């Protein structure tokens, strides 16, 4: 029997694809439609493999595979980026968008082939569909990409294969197949870009903050892989292991990551960072404000743990309590988006590195804070944290930050896009900070009519749409750089579709929703 929420989720994704391609229709549109059709069929094979325990790795069990919505994110991002940069006349980033779209399609196709290959008996119809979709994609790539671009796409695919084999083995039950595609596909692309730029450094070319993002992401992941291998041979919870952890972190940070960043930006990274952070009085005020909000978030964690009595050790924080952090994140990002987006960009990178590093300390039980972090964060676990890592807070940060990091600054003449594109950096704030939060609070407290097959309510979804429209109106009032050029119907359709996707998906909505809203706004 077909799963109603999966069918609803798939229908919404197909509608988003058609909406995007009514605006942007070219040879890549046929590829996107073919990829979506075959992903729709293959995701049911993945779902069956997960139910029967036939998948090669252990995936998160409380959700479906999520292959269709995840498969379309990177290709659609590449297509809309290509079109925006083509309109702006920036050929380099137009070609970059084509590479992004081609890479996303090939990686998604690879994951589909894996599912078809391990399904017994072999699904003939799905094999034919996958073959047809693959033929269309490869034929289009053959006539669209240069030799160097084909090599780059294959490099990302190779990195993705090896990263998947390593991380899915080391981190069982942390991802669904769709989430693994999004996260590992993104990391693979970042790693390939860093290698490419490191081998072709030209002094004075490239924005230092872009290099900072690439080095920070790759650096913390390599750090985690190093310590994972190391602690296979020694107990990570002892004082000797903890001292070795801190010492090796300093050695790798100062001996590998810092020189790597120095090579890319051609200046001392620490001096550059300090100069950047305290360059203007506005930045100082924002940093002080953000420090206060960070302290408030820590205060909520300590207060909620203090409320946990000894006889209710299994007590978990309520949905409304967890949404406090969403409000804090909105209060963090909105001033940054209005007054200094570059500072917000760098601060979000630093925060991501700190979050991942603290998760290493918690996971490996590094003294003196590892066990304390385990106790404090256990209160906020939900069904999505079924693996050894706690990732929901990292996904929240990523969902808010990705629209800022992926904003095509070089293709925006005055630092902002026209029409609905002006709201692209606000995609995370609208989809996660406002929409998801309001839907969860109102749905859990006042919702009565449930969407078929889910715990989500119609009242929560409608309230989320209404709240996001109000938020857009407030952005128009307070942010003078935003000019929507009468594209209100498109904004309403975008917000409504993404809110409906939130009601039907079982994937990590903090990660998925902002990306789809960004795609719609950029189209």
Automatic annotation (TrEMBL):
- GO CC, alphabetical: endoplasmic reticulum membrane
The compartments listed are: Endoplasmic reticulum membrane
InterPro entries registered for this protein in UniProt: Polypren_kinase
A GO molecular-function term, please? dolichol kinase activity
Segments passing through the bilayer: 12-41, 61-80, 92-116, 122-141, 153-171, 211-231, 243-262, 282-303, 324-339, 345-365, 386-406, 426-446, 458-478
Keywords for this entry?
Endoplasmic reticulum, Kinase, Membrane, Transferase, Transmembrane, Transmembrane helix
Q: Tell me the name of the encoding gene.
A: Dolk
- What's the protein's topology in the membrane? Multi-pass membrane protein
An example GO biological process term is: dolichyl monophosphate biosynthetic process
Name of the protein in question: dolichol kinase
Enzyme class label: transferase
* Sequence similarity: Belongs to the polyprenol kinase family.
- Per the UniProt record, which EC number(s) apply here? 2.7.1.108
